[in-house]
Specification:
By secondary structure, the protein is of the alpha+beta class. The protein folds into two domains: about 5-160, no CATH class; about 210-350. About 50% of the residues lie in helices and about 10% in strands. The strands form three sheets. It has a three-stranded antiparallel β-sheet with strand order 1-3-6. Strands 2-5-4 form a three-stranded antiparallel β-sheet. A two-stranded antiparallel sheet has the order 7-8. Helix 7 packs antiparallel against helix 9 (about 245-270), helix 7 (about 210-225) crosses helix 10 and helix 9 (about 245-270) runs antiparallel to helix 10. The model is unreliable at about 135-165 (pLDDT under 50).
Length: about 350
């Protein structure tokens, strides 16, 4: 008999869950912070290696989860402390990048946090259903296809049980990105008539961009690298000595390089509006972390946000100039979103 679930809770981590660390410093009955809001948990799962833990606490163990003070007025997300080890309640460990992709979509990124909570909660329920997760077991296959609804996923599982068989996993679902690309190339070579449709799908995927979503992703990725990352890069190596400031710059640049590459790709494809949205998102994300107190890499590279913003704008202008296009960048965006960098932009535009 499946235990009746009293509550579903979430916890964001910057790295993969390590169960051996629970209670390591304060004993096996130490408390661990969780929240009932997946979007709030996602805000703590910073960086490209972040994950969100999902636990279902059954009624008979409900006393182990106690609500704690988070806000003085009692509004907003609720904080819970789960005492002792919770491996038996863990139903999913989901990559933060997977969840962030859900709320980066157009029409979602600007919604209130309460709506994002609902959307993420529904997605996590579908994710669990599609992955076939069960209590006490981590569902780690994020590439499985999602059903249209959670109930649909349950009906499929029930049907398989009735017929005494389990559906075989499709080879397509297990492909690595490079393998999937080779399959696509082979398919288009054999069926050239599909090329136009494939081009349309590819363009729509690349074009689905808003600067607010890009900025949020950039901030997460810049706040993720911590002192462990810095210590692994700085110091003496076979190739020589790397100072902590240089190491911090390298790590932070690597964190947002994929987004910069995306801007370049959009420019080359002639997706001017989307490239501008990505460029604005990069600038806004860098602006957002310029004064944030951080004990990680940002603390060792305080000039990184402004220096990198200047490089990105120069690259935006240079790439467009090479393609014979104007060196435009909306002044209204600067005035409204990054006012403290007006002098930086003035210097670049005058050069």
């Amino acid at each position: 008999m499946i235990p009746k679930v009293r509550m579903r809770l979430y916890r964001g981590l910057t790295r993969k869950y390590q169960p051996e660390k629970v209670g390591k410093n304060h004993g096996p009955l130490a408390g661990t912070d969780f929240t009932d809001c997946p979007y709030r948990a996602l805000s703590f799962a910073r960086g490209t290696r972040g994950v969100v833990l999902v636990v279902d606490v059954p009624e008979e163990d409900g006393s182990r989860a106690r609500e704690a003070l988070w806000s003085l007025d009692g509004t907003g997300p609720k904080r819970f402390i789960l005492y002792g080890r919770f491996d038996q309640f863990l139903v999913a460990e989901i990559p933060a990048t997977e969840l962030r992709s859900r709320i980066r979509k157009k029409g979602i990124v600007t919604l209130p946090d309460s709506d994002k909570d609902r959307i993420l909660g529904d997605y996590i329920a579908e994710w669990n259903s599609a992955a076939g997760s069960r209590r006490g077991e981590i569902a780690g296959q994020v590439n499985l296809p999602l059903p249209t609804t959670a109930s649909e996923g349950h009906s499929n599982v029930d049907a398989e049980k009735r017929h005494g068989k389990r559906k075989r996993t499709s080879a397509l679902e297990e492909l690595e990105p490079t393998e999937a690309l080779e399959v696509l190339r082979t398919l288009l070579k054999s069926h050239p008539g599909l090329k136009e449709e494939a081009e349309g799908i590819a363009t729509s995927l690349i074009a689905d961009t808003s600067f607010e979503a890009v900025a949020e992703d950039v901030e997460w990725n810049l706040e993720g690298p911590d002192l462990d990352d810095l210590n692994s890069r700085a110091g003496r190596h076979r190739s020589g000595y790397v100072g902590p400031n240089d190491a911090a710059y390298e790590i932070l640049r690597e964190a947002i390089e994929p987004t910069i590459q995306e801007m370049r790709r959009q420019i080359q494809l002639g997706l001017d509006r989307e490239a501008l949205e990505t460029c604005k998102g990069l600038i806004l994300g860098l602006y957002g972390v310029r004064k944030k107190e951080s004990g990680g890499c940002l603390a060792w590279a305080p000039d990184f946000p402004e220096d990198t913003a200047g490089e990105i704008i120069n690259e935006w202008i240079g790439e467009r100039k090479q393609m014979g296009k104007t060196r435009s960048f909306p002044r209204s965006f600067i005035d409204q979103h990054v006012p403290e960098w007006k002098s930086l932009f003035d210097r670049i535009f005058k050069s």
